[in-house]
Amino acid sequence: MKFSCVKIAVLCLVAALVVHAAPYDPPTWRDSTWDYRSEDSTDLAGEVSWLKVGGVASLTLIAYGAAYWLVFDKGWWDEQGNHFHFENDFDYALNLDKFGHFASGVAMGELFYEGYRWAGATEFQSYLFAGLSAMMTHIAIDVKDAYSPEWGFSIFDVLSGTLGGFLPMAERYVPLFKYVDLKWSYWINSRAYYDQGKIDGKNHTCVFTDDYVNQTFWASFKIYRMLPAAVRSYYPSWLAIAAGLSIDDGVFLHNKEITPHREVYIALDYDLEAFRPQSRMARTLIKSLNYFKLPAPAVQVYPEFHWFLLYPIKF
User: Fold this and answer.
1) What are 135-151's pLDDT values in tens digits?
2) Beta-sheet strands, E only, within 12-107
3) Could you tell me if 29 and 36 are in contact, meaning their C-beta atoms sit under 8 angstroms apart?
4) Under 8 Å CB-to-CB from 106, ≥6 apart: which residues?
5) For the CA atoms of the chain, what is the radius of gyration?
6) Distance of CA 117 to the CA centre of its chain
7) Crossing angle (nearest 10°) for helices 123-145 and 155-165
8) pLDDT tens figures, 75-133
9) Whole-number Å distance between alpha carbons of 190 and 251
10) The pTM is what?
11) CA 125 to CA 118: how far, in whole Å?
C-alpha cells in the first residue's frame, strides 16, 4: 500500500470570480510590497511555547494513528512481512504515483508549518522543520514498506515526498513560484481502480489516493504576473492557464491487449490569491484552497483531442 496523504478537492465553481474581473485589477499579493506568505508577527507568538510544541506532537501522533487504522492496517501492514529490500517502482502507474507522493508531502509540509509557526518557531524555522518532518514521515513509511512481501523501499517515493514537503518553503522564498502554482484535481470518472476485485487471488484494499486514473496534477501559470505592467490592467488577475497530466484506466484493467498511456490537458484556472484577504486566517485558507484545481473548461491534447466544460467532471 503506497501512501499519498492528500485532501479531497473542494469541487465547486466560484462564480463571483467572473464578476471580479474589471478593466483595472488591483495588484495581487505577490505583486505588492509584501509577500502573501509573510506572517503578521502580531498574530503569532514571539518565542517557542513548549506547551504548544507538546500539543503539535500529540496531534501528530493522533493523526499517524488514524492513518494507520484507516489506511495502512487495511493494506499489508497487518500481514506477515519479508526481509528488508529495495524496489525500483518508477514505472508504476506510469510514474504518476510520484506526483501523488509529492502532493502528500505538500499537504504535510503545510500542516507541519502551521503547527510549528503556532508553537512559536520563526517563519524560516517552521518551513525548514516542516519539510524535514515530511521527509522523515515518508522515510518511516517506506522503511515499513521495505518489509512488504510485494512492495519495497522506494528511493523515488521518498524523494518525491520530500520535495513536496519543501514546496511551501520554495513558494515563500523562490521567485519562480510567483508565476506558477502546482495543483491537484480528483473526480471519479472511471471505476477501473475500484472494480479490480480479486487480483492474483488476493483482496486488494482500494484507497482513493491510489486511484491515479481519476487524478490530474497541474502546473498553473499566472499569466497576469507574466504580462508587462501596461497590459496587466486589461487582464483579470484571477485567470490562469494550467497544464495537467493524468493516465487512462488501462493501468488497472490488466488487459495485455490495452496499452496504458498518459493524458495531457490544457485548462483555464482560477488564482484564488487574487482576492488578497488581509487576515492571516483568510490567507491560510486561500493558500490551502489554491492547491486544488477547481472545475473549469479544458481540452485534452494528448493522445487524443477532447474538450470538457468543467474538467475534471466529464459529461
Assistant:
1) 999 998 888 777 777 77
2) none
3) yes
4) 164, 165, 167, 168, 182, 291
5) 21
6) 21
7) 160
8) 545 555 677 777 877 778 899 999 999 999 999 999 999 999 989 998 899 999 999 99
9) 12
10) 0.82
11) 12
